[in-house]
């Protein structure tokens, strides 16, 4: 039964370019998938390791910039992608060594600072990154001779990467290593006493998370064929975190739901109002205060709470008054 | 030779400005354990308030003080209405400050437009002051003086008053401070107002040097972060020393290696993190 449902979802997703003929919407679907990959990667840290990173756009951006620089330097797409991912892994290792000096808020602060360094370099190191003007690339790759130039072609490639991300994250989380990672989140001292190398577990989780952020960064580069410092700004890290938190941290598909929500709101909001940041900020504040566990579980809880209240009021209107008297 | 002296003077003036910004940031972080990500926005908001007050006919210093008070009230509202709803959930509080920083940035863009606004140097402080044949801009010397006066005032407040003793107790051990009858939650509000007010005031004071533009918040916040990571959270001495270190790095970095100024700025922070994660003057901050 479950397998049937899963294959049905797969068929619907794969056939999306046919039932959504308009290439604008197919492109939005590609955007959703690529941000979902990013959010899945970030959720490994935020949800399963309990380490909130506000610098992941830095890793995303390093992959995009590295890919663009390799391609413009004459490398073919295969080498460029490998090079971009290697650069991201290296950067993730450096980030992890520094950020894991702290946990909790220390970790947050250090990742903010690291993200801002990447932003500063992207913005200022004009001879490499072309500063505010960003870097463009001329072509998309043609894996196995398939063209990714059209919207459906790119969508299918992104879908494949997305499925790979979901599968590996699911395997990762379900593995004994994933269990030990959740252990370091909930009881770091006990895990340490049990003989687990807490730091190493977190470090590897950071690399894994960084790798998928980098993959998303490469997809982003190919999607836009352009990358600019805006991609690595604090706002971009916050947007990714919003996806994870909005969907529900520590769940496999929460970040995907979050990516759907944020990308759609962003596209809709920017079509009608110029104030996407205001909306983003407001959603952030509302979700954190009223639905800290994420939109889906949060709305269920709020709905139940409201329903309970209504029911209680209808069933015993006198009961509450009596209690107050006593 | 002259260039070096001028750069050094500018560095110290910028350090003074950074101290006004980061002293509050550090106290808030030390006491409430929140890296207040709205701090850059409060700085920018203060600067924008200042431009409006000056345009409405106020002179410079009253405008700066009024902007500081305005931002302090706003800070108090943020603490009371939003952060207070999330007691003990530090992470949620950080995320709320992050969300607010986006909202403030966008509202400033709506209210004051996208063009940079200059704040004129107060007339009495125009020109240069000569110290044995080297001329420094008088206004920057005044900024240094203001920063030193406020640093001294803050030190007196923290080190010599009852309120200061309570704040120190709250920074060191909030649970114990509560047990001995200190209302730590009221301290939160006071410190948040104070920090916000200083940031708003600093925004106006920094106006003649930096001018006011969208994105000023994102430029200043990392600097405050670096100062606090360098100096250690909750430590005034740490913020003071950290501010001047960052002031020097920022100005010399800009002049010597403009493309890598950011790396020059953050490198010492990374070294401190690796060797002494609690900061130079901090006691086991994180």
How is this structure best summarized?
The complex is a heterodimer of chains A (326) and B (286). Chain A is mainly α and 326 residues long.
Q: What is the fold named in CATH at topology level of chain A?
A: ABC transporter involved in vitamin B12 uptake, BtuC
Number of domains of chain A: 1
Element order of chain B: H for helix, E for strand:
HHHHEEHHHHHHH
Largest sheet of chain A: 2 strands, antiparallel
3D architecture notes:
- The complex is a heterodimer of chains A (326) and B (286).
- Chain A has 326 residues and is mostly helical.
- Chain A has a single domain (24-290), classed as Orthogonal Bundle (ABC transporter involved in vitamin B12 uptake, BtuC), CATH 1.10.3470.10.
- Chain A contains 16 helices and 2 strands.
- Chain A has helices at 2-14, 16-19, 23-49, 56-72, 77-99, 105-124, 126-129, 151-174, 176-186, 188-193, 198-224, 234-247, 254-272, 276-290, 295-315, 317-325; strands at 135-136, 226-227.
- Chain A has a two-stranded antiparallel ribbon.
- In chain A, helix 3 runs antiparallel to helix 11, helix 3 crosses helix 13 (254-272) and helix 4 (56-72) packs antiparallel against helix 5 (77-99).
- Chain A is globular and about 70 Å long.
- With 286 residues, chain B is mainly alpha-helical.
- Chain B has a single domain, classed as ABC transporter involved in vitamin B12 uptake, BtuC (Orthogonal Bundle).
- Chain B is built from 11 helices and 2 strands.
- Chain B has helices at residues 2-32, 39-55, 60-82, 90-112, 138-160, 162-172, 174-179, 184-210, 216-231, 236-256, 261-275; strands spanning 128-131, 134-137.
- In chain B, strands 1-2 form a two-stranded antiparallel sheet.
- In chain B, a hairpin with a 2-residue loop joins strand 1 and strand 2.
- The model of chain B has no long low-confidence stretch (mean pLDDT 85).
- At the A-B interface, helix 6, helix 12 and helix 14 of A face helix 4, helix 9 and helix 11 of B.
């Amino acid at each position: 039964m479950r397998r049937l449902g899963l294959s049905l979802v797969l068929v619907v997703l794969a056939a999306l370019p046919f039932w959504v003929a308009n290439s604008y919407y197919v492109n939005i679907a590609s955007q959703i998938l690529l941000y979902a990959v990013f959010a899945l990667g970030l959720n490994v840290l935020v949800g399963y390791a309990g380490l909130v990173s506000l610098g992941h756009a830095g890793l995303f951006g390093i992959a995009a910039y590295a890919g663009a620089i390799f391609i413009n330097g004459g490398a073919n797409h295969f080498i460029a992608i490998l090079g971009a991912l290697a650069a991201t892994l290296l950067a993730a290792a450096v980030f992890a060594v520094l950020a894991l000096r702290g946990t909790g808020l220390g970790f947050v602060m250090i990742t903010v600072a690291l993200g801002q360094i990447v932003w500063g370099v992207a913005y200022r190191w004009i001879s490499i990154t072309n500063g505010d003007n960003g870097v463009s690339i001329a072509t998309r790759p043609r894996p196995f001779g398939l063209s990714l130039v059209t919207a459906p072609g790119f969508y299918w490639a992104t879908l494949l990467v997305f499925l790979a991300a979901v599968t590996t994250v699911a395997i990762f989380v379900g593995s004994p290593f994933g269990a030990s990672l959740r252990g370091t989140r909930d009881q770091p001292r006990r895990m340490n006493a049990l003989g687990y190398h807490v730091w190493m577990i977190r470090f590897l989780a950071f690399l894994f998370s960084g790798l998928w952020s980098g993959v998303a960064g490469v997809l982003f580069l190919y999607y836009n064929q352009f990358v600019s410092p805006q991609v690595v700004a604090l706002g971009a890290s916050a947007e990714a975190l919003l996806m994870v938190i909005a969907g529900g941290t520590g769940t496999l598909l929460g970040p995907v739901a979050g990516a759907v929500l944020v990308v759609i709101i962003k596209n809709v909001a920017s079509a009608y109002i110029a104030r996407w940041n205001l909306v983003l900020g407001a959603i952030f504040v509302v979700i954190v205060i009223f639905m800290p566990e994420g939109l889906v579980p949060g709305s269920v809880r709020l709905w139940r709470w409201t329903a309970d209240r209504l029911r209680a009021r209808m069933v015993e209107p006198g009961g509450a008054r009596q209690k107050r008297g006593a | 030779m002259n260039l070096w002296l001028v750069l050094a003077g500018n560095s110290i003036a910028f350090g003074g400005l950074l101290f006004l910004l980061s002293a509050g940031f550090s106290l808030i972080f030390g006491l409430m354990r929140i890296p207040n990500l709205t701090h850059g926005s409060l700085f920018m908001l203060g600067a924008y308030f200042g431009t409006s007050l000056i345009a409405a006919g106020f002179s410079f210093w009253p405008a700066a003080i009024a902007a500081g008070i305005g931002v302090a009230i706003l800070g108090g509202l943020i603490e009371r209405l939003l952060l207070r709803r999330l007691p003990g959930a530090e992470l949620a509080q950080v995320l709320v400050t992050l969300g607010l920083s986006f909202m403030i940035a966008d509202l400033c863009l709506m209210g004051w437009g996208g063009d940079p606004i200059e704040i004129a140097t107060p007339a009495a402080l125009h020109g240069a002051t000569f110290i044995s044949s080297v001329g420094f801009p008088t206004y920057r010397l005044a900024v240094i003086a203001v920063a030193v006066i406020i640093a001294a005032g803050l030190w007196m407040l923290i080190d010599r008053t009852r309120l200061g003793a309570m704040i120190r107790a709250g920074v060191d051990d909030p649970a114990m401070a509560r047990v001995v009858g200190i209302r730590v939650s009221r301290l939160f509000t006071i410190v948040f107002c104070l920090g916000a007010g200083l940031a708003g005031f600093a925004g106006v004071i920094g106006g003649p040097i930096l001018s006011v533009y969208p994105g000023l918040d994102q430029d200043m916040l990392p600097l405050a972060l670096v100062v606090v990571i360098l100096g250690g959270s909750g430590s005034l001495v740490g913020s003071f020393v950290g501010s001047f270190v960052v002031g020097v790095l920022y100005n010399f970095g800009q002049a010597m290696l403009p493309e890598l100024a950011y790396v020059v700025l953050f490198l010492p922070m990374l070294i401190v993190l690796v060797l002494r994660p609690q900061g130079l003057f901090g006691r086991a901050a994180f």
